[in-house]
Design a protein that fits this description.
The chain is 39% helix and 13% strand. With 212 residues, the chain is α+β, with helices and mostly antiparallel strands. Helix 2 runs antiparallel to helix 5.
């Protein structure tokens, strides 16, 4: 259904910017369960995301199995130890103090993949930029992230995982490529400042738009 006269007002602008400001990468979760009706709304919101050629290349696995979750935590620990070893001195000590995942407590955990060459979309827009498929998946993740926040949920994206191990653990089709692991739940606290900025690891930087 189209609404050719649909417009937005200042209140909508304020709400959107407020939502984006409070969208933070969350690692500290309560263990409260999430109502299935809320999860259904998150699913629906993700499906509103744009994608190259309307290919909709994202695929999502809801990870509920306790053993699978343990194996994913184990892979995170291995990858995190490797990452820590790449630093030295004070920076290594600072890294080891960071909480980089909410894998222990997050009640909803989603593994997100991108189909490497889907039939859908008929290759439109991706012959010159095949990475646009991954970009489409990331836009879908961002849509989910905002939808989770407006439901008073937090989302944390875990990148310290081995993509090949994840594809093997979750027994994916050969043309699925691991994109992200998402932890979702009610946050222990809310913050409008990125955690890595707050603890001094890396401050936010404003990069001005350049003109050519």
């Amino acid at each position: 259904m189209t609404h050719p006269h649909e417009t937005f007002d200042d209140q909508d602008v304020f709400a959107l910017h407020r939502l984006m400001r409070w969208r933070r990468d969350v690692r500290h979760f309560r263990t409260d369960s999430i109502d299935e009706a809320v999860i259904a709304r998150l699913h629906a919101a993700m499906e509103l995301a744009p994608s190259v050629g309307n290919a909709r290349p994202w695929r999502v696995i809801r990870v509920e199995n306790a053993e699978l979750r343990r194996e994913i935590r184990d892979d995170f620990k291995r990858c995190n130890a490797d990452a820590a070893a790449s630093y030295s001195g004070q920076k290594r000590e600072e890294y080891l103090q960071l909480k980089l995942a909410g894998l222990e407590k997050a009640p909803l955990q989603l593994a997100v993949f991108t189909v490497s060459d889907p039939d859908e979309g008929h290759t439109l827009g991706r012959r010159t930029m095949p990475d646009a498929l991954q970009a489409s998946t990331h836009m879908a993740i961002h849509a989910l992230w905002l939808a989770a926040r407006v439901e008073n949920l937090g989302l944390g994206m875990v990148s310290i995982l081995d993509p090949i191990v994840m594809e093997q653990l979750l027994d994916c089709p050969k043309d699925w490529r691991f994109s992200a692991y998402l932890c979702i739940g009610y946050p222990e606290f809310n913050d409008d400042t990125p955690l890595l900025h707050r603890v001094g690891w890396q401050e936010n930087h404003l990069h001005p738009w350049e003109t050519r």
